[in-house]
Amino acid sequence: MVDWLAKLESLDRRWLYGGTVLVLLVPFVVAIPMPPGGATPATQGLYDRVESCPGDKVVLVDSSWDMGSRAENQAQLECVVRHLCRRRVRFVVTSVGVTKFAPEFAARVIEPIAAKAGYVYGRDWANLGFVEARGGMGAVVDGLCRDLHSVRPTDVKGTPVGELPLLDDVRSIQDVHLVYCITYAPVPEWISFVKGQHGTPVAFGSMSIMSPQYYTYLDSGQLCGMLAGNRGAAEYEALDGHPSLGTRLIMAASFGNCVIIVAALLGNVGAWAVRRRRRAGK
Amino acid sequence: MRRSVVRLITFVGGLYFLLEFLLPERAPAWLGGWKNPLTPWFGTATNVVIVVGTMAFLLGPFNLTRSHVMTLVRKQKGRVYSAAFLVALVVSMVATALKPEDLRTVWTVVYEALFYGVIAAFFASSMALLAFYLVSAAHRALRLSTADSALMLGAAAIILLGQVPAGDWLTCGLPRGLQLRSWSQWILMYPNTAVQRAVLIGACGGAFATGLRHWLGLGTRLE
Amino acid sequence: MTHPLSVWLGAFVTLVVFSYLAKDNPVYRLVQHAALGVSVGIGVVVAWKQVLYPLWWAPIQGAVTGDGAASGAWWLLALVPGALWYFQLSKRWFWVSTLVSGLFIGVAAGLTFKTQILLILPQVGASLKPLNPFAGPEGFTWAQCGVCLSNLVFLVGLLTTLLYFFFSVRAEGRLVRVPMRVGRMMLMVCLGAMFGNTVMTRMAYLLERLQFLYGTVQSLFARG
Question: Is residue B159 part of a domain?
């Protein structure tokens, strides 16, 4: 028995890889119902802020993610945009710094949702495209807060912002009800300048790996809400009554997390068996 | 002389934004009530920073292209890959430049194939490889050998199960305060926040010191 | 609507990348170089179209043709610092590029003070949490007691972590050794939380790709 268990310590990694893929495919093939679970205060905070948006203000969505963080950021963008459309809240999309591919991914996600909700581009929503922040993220964020038209004189298609009716009402951060920044790891400049200097609430949508460091901002009230990975997106979808991509992926993540725990257990059991065998051999 | 000029430019570059922040929006009445003279120029300064920063956008592509062209010209090993890079570079630039915004043409199809079919798939799949390495590392390296490692792995297990429906299912019969998701939230909101805040406070001091060093050019070599 | 070419090419590239798990191979390298070329090419055009053209070239063009403000011509001067970046390519004239990189280091340093001040002061204020379970509006309740205990854990964690990390004192004497040990334990819990979240993200990457591949296979059978 101990000899057999000792083999677990040196298990060929190809078995591990193959087993991982097989286990992770199960939730896609077989629908396994699991309890949905409630929303955390971080998710509830963002949801409540969107719900409270008045008609004369907009939400600024900074969608700065690409294929490197699509796995979690896409669901975070989808669920909030769907909520904005349901509440008939107008929104402006930017992609500040980070990655030049972000506007394309944002448009890909938002256009079908907006079209289905009957939103008209230029009147109900606008995509202002990529803003380079290589020189100083703080300067660009502060510049956007003071004069949006100056920093982004055209939208992603090259149309002057003066020709977009929505942007007539949106000139500075005073016209914005909430800034929602979705990227791999949102930078603290959003908090310093948007919330700290101008007092406008900020929420983040970040990858799970980076989310632990943002809880300190949630605790101090500098962030009004946060979606942490697909879990956050799934909770938001549950609050909005529209389970979608986030819910599907978090259900599948159950299996993924169990794979890691089982792999660690197998390794520890194998190591224990090897030590036991070594001691018995002595 | 060169170093002094660079230090002066560095100082002036930082001085504008620092003064614009430190000077009040409007001086008190007994000082004349003047407005901050730097604020009206903030938009222009921001745009100058954006434009001049973006003008370096050809540096990286130029270096890469030069390196791969030399590989081809010198017929070195790996020239097939260099040729693939150069062809992909040219085709993607042409497709991105020529694709119209509101129509679907053949350039749109080429652009989408390159964007979604090549780079989106490649970089996303490269990140996905990390999951396999993580499983392998969990099997080989995560050992419960000390009290510290037990504490770490215990916290990790609570977080892992507490944030997915499997954890909700496992503990759904328990009172709310004893469920895995409550424990994972408590770990994130209290011990984790305490440590992250301590690190942030320390890092802030370091950022201040480093920023001051760079701004005043103390002990830095730019050449 | 995504063209089928994008979907099939994406599935092919995904499988090629996964083949790296078995062994580094020529097809993977070819796809890797092609992907790099595409990302660089698209990045160059996007930088021009979405940043330089509207912010720099269009105002100059407007000033020259008379369609825009005459002050747009001043943007021509931006070519001077902008061109300095390219002196990095010369060994002899490399020092010229330090003029513009020095400018940006100064800008970043100047912004750092503002960023950090606005970030940290609320953090310090929020660290003062209530510890008295009797001081709530309803007097003593078990919920309030739980919150105060958690606040105590928070405060102890904050102070001991600061002690462990930043105050480089020798761990001599129980007065220092015990708090440092507590700080270390807190760090372990935090690292465990970070590791758990790391696993969530890594698994999400793989799940997204598997979902894509499964969807592609499904569409193949649906069509068939």
Answer: yes
